[in-house]
Fold:
Amino acid sequence: QSLRLTQRSLSRPGYRNYRTNVIIMSRGPIESRIEEKLTQHLEPKYLEITNESYKHNVPKGSESHFKVIVVSDKFVGLSLLKQHQLVNSTLAEELATSVHALAIKTSTTEKWKEAGGPLTLDTPNCLGGSKHERK
Structure:
């Protein structure tokens, strides 16, 4: 994967808008499609997509394991389960074909602002396959 340096305006709850240099890994076609669909269907205020395939026993450059953090007003009034179901239904085609695992963190804009900082979602490294020895 290639790296490129870009400048973006970032806005987070409780912080002023600021410009910063951000290193962005070039995205593959599946990650791009995930971003496009989530943006189109959920109109997120904040969206973070991480390809975590490198943490698993898959070929280099794979796009099979993802983590998404989505902040959207489309989640207002929905339980956490319904929020995750909305993300899953938006990405149904990808989940049925190329995406093996999807970790999801969702929030409404109001709850995101109340939290006052970035949302995080920790996911484990792969323990299966031949990548790690079992004892």
